[in-house]
Amino acid sequence: MRWISIWMFVLVSLLYGVPNGSAQQGPTNYETSKLADLLVEAENNNPQLRVVKQELQSMQQMPTQVSTLPDPQVALQQVNVGSPRPFAGFTNSDFAYIGLGVSQDFPYPGKLRLRRELASKDAEVAEQKVEAMLRAILSDLKVAFFRISFLTKQGVILDGDRELLQQMEQAAEVKYRSGMGNQQEVLQAQLEQTKLLREITANRLEASKLQAELKQLLGRPQTSPDLVTEDIGETTLTRNFDELLSAAQSNNPHVSGAQKAVDRQKISIEIAKKDFYPDFNAQFMWQRTDPSQFRAYYQFTLGARIPIYRKRKQQPELAQAEIDKSKAQSEVDAQLQEVSSTLRQQYVAVEKSAELLKMYRDGLLPQAKAALEAGFAAYQSNRQDFETLLASFLDVLKLDEEYWQTLAEHEAALGQIEELTGVLLR
In this structure, are residues 189 and 161 in contact, taking their beta carbons and an 8 Å threshold? Predict the structure, then answer.
C-alpha cells in the first residue's frame, strides 16, 4: 500500500539521520569558514581590540616623558632709571643694567627613575588589558561560532522534520481514507507542522542575531554575506583541573594585571616617601651695567622646595599609597578566586557534557530509534495508536537536536577554559 511505502521512507530517513559521533554534513554549496581563520581575522580586525592596542601604544610613550628633567627657563631682565622705555638711560645711572639668566629644576635624586618605573608599570597593566580583551573577543567568537554551527545543524534537522511530518500526515490521511485511522491523527500531524514552523522561525531569528554579532567581532560590515561555519566535532579534554588551574594562575591576564597593579602601588609608595625630601632649583644670571665703568656681574643661586606641610600633604599621600597597595592585593585575591571558580564551573561543564554526548550516542538515541522501529511495526498492525507513534518520532528528533546542542555547549565551555588559562585545547 502507498502509506506503507511512505512510512518506510520516513523510517529510513530517521534511522540514518541519527548522529554517530561525527558531524553530519550540511550544505556544501557555500565556502565554509574555519574557526582558526576567523580567530586570526578577529585578532587583526576587531575595532574594540584596536582601541585598547592604541591605548597601550599611547601609554608606552610615557616613561621617557615623566623621567626627563623639566624644561629649563630662560629670563631676560632690564632695569632703567628715570624712564619706562626699554633700554633707556643705560648710561645715565649706575643702577641701570641688563641681565640674562637660565634656571633648571632638579627633583630629589631617585624621583625621575621611580616615575619612569611607575609609567612602565602602567603600560604593563595596559598590556594585560589588551591580552584580556583579545581573549574575551576570541572566546565570544568561539561561542557565537559554535552556536551558529548548532543552529545550522538544527535548521537542517527542522527542515527534514517538516518534510517527514508532511509524509506522516499523508500516511495518516491514507490510513484514514482506508478506514483504518481517524481524522484526529491527520490533525495532530498538521499541528506538529505548525509547531515546527514556529521553531524554524525562531531558529532563523537567533541565527541572524548571531551572524550580526559574529560580523561585529570580525570587524566586517553588516552588509557582508553571512558566514557558513564548518561542522564541529567533539574535542577531548586532555588536561586535568590542577594543570589548568596552575596555567590560569600564571597566565590569566586579569590576575597578571592585578599583580602588576600591586607592583605599581609599591612604586607609588616609594615616590610618596621621596616627596618627604626637597626638590632643588639652580639659577645662573649674567648682568651688565655701563661697560665703560663696571665689569659684568655673574650670579649663581641654588634653591630648594622644603616640604614643611608634611602632615597635610606628604603623610596623607603616603597613607593613600599604602591603602591603594592593600586594595590592589585584595584585587589579586579576588581575581584568583573568580578565575578558579569560573574555571571549575567550565571544567565540570566539559566533563558532564562529554558524558551526555556519550550517553546520547550509546544509549538514548539507539534506544529511541529502537522504540520508533517497534512503534512503527505496532502501528502497522493496529496495535499502537498514531499519537504514541508520533511521540516516539518526536523523541528521536528532540534527542537529535539535544545532541548537537550539547556538542556546541561542550565546545563553547572549552573555549571559556582557553580564555581563562591561555592553553590551546584544540
Answer: no
Please answer whether residues 285 and 99 qualify as being in contact, where contact means their C-beta atoms are separated by less than 8 angstroms.
Answer: yes
Q: What is the DSSP string of 312-361?
A: TTHHHHHHHHHHHHHHHHHHHHHHHHHHHHHHHHHHHHHHHHHHHHHHII
Q: What are the domain boundaries of the chain?
A: 2-69+107-275+313-421, 71-106+281-310
* Helices of type H across 46-88: 47-59, 62-66
C-alpha cell at 22: 561525527
For the structural domain made of 2-69+107-275+313-421, what CATH number should be given?
1.20.1600.10
How far apart are alpha carbons 347 and 146 in whole angstroms?
18
Give the per-residue pLDDT at 420. Answer: 95
Give backbone dihedrals phi and psi of 22, rounded to 5 degrees, phi first: -115, 155
- pTM for the whole thing? 0.79
pLDDT tens digit sequence for 367-408: 887 887 777 667 666 666 767 777 777 788 788 889 999 999
Question: Residues 6 or more apart from 61 whose CB is under 8 A from it?
Answer: none
Handedness of CA 346, 352, 354, 356 (dihedral sign): negative
